[in-house]
Amino acid sequence: MMRPANIVTSVADILAGIAISGVLSIGFPIPWLSIILLAASTACLYGGGIVFNDVFDADLDKIERPERAIPSGIISLRDATLLGGLLLFAGIAFAALNSLTSGLLALLVAVFALLYNKFGKHHSFFGPLNMGLCRGFNLLLGISIVPEMLSNHYLAIIPVIYIFSITMTSRGEVHGGRAKNLYLAAFLYAIVICAIAYFAFVNERLLLSMLFLVPFVVMIFRPLIKAIKEPVGKNIGGAVKAGVISLILMDAAWAVTFDALILAFIIAALLPLSMWLSKLFAVT
């Protein structure tokens, strides 16, 4: 119900944000407690957001996805609501234990997750934007390990654009979609790739970033091209699944761009875990 494979990608976002903050490359001891708190925070926030997704979609899922936990009777609507609330509260609390700034960012993630689940998903533009903002704030949550480094907040626009394109694409995974939406997603993907490559070039890390950008490009475009050729639900679902999981490679590219090569490999090592979990649990 909580999409474990997706939660792994949210932890990767936090690690990328930590890399961007520079806290691992300035010679100070590694702030293990802060890293653990922020990783636990994002895991709870993402899990809670996904639970509320199923809570608000319970009636629709009875028709379109009866195999999900609530319509199949695995968990009651009341218990799912309680679980989602506890997870969101825990996510905010873990972040607040790190700092007030982190707590406020976690609160924003929780609020925008609820807004998306209740209202945003029903809007063709603001829905994808809403979901993108959740990931953008999640990256900032990682950066908030050094609050002063939130001056790099403009970097959050990259995951916003990327998740916007994935969320827009996902609207066709049940009944099929339109090729023009998939072409737009491909264009937005290209913007994201070029933006990361630009920052890597500026920071003189372009060649190293290619270790992660090249497989990232292959992973997201291969299923997307297949979906463009035949925009049926199964192919679109595959493109969405690949887009979500490949966030790990994008985060690894961010890490190496900001001179955290070892952390980049650690983030990349989360990919096989996420892929394995995606075979056991639903991603979308």
TrEMBL record:
| Transmembrane segments annotated in the record for this chain | 7-26, 32-52, 73-94, 153-170, 182-201, 207-225, 237-256, 262-282
Asked if the record carries the keyword Transmembrane, the reply is yes
GO molecular function terms noted in the UniProt entry:
transferase activity, transferring alkyl or aryl (other than methyl) groups
Q: What is its main location?
A: membrane
Extract the coiled-coil ranges from the record: none
Top-rank lineage group of the source organism? Bacteria
Keyword match Transferase: yes
> Entry's Pfam families?
UbiA
Name the CDD domains on file: PT_UbiA_1 (cd13964)
* Localization, UniProt: Membrane
Record keywords, A-Z = Cell membrane, Membrane, Transferase, Transmembrane, Transmembrane helix
- Topologically, how does it sit relative to the membrane? Multi-pass membrane protein
Q: Which GO terms describe its cellular component?
A: membrane
Q: Which NCBIfam families match?
A: prenyl_rel_EboC (NF035940)
What name appears for this protein in its UniProt entry? 4-hydroxybenzoate polyprenyltransferase
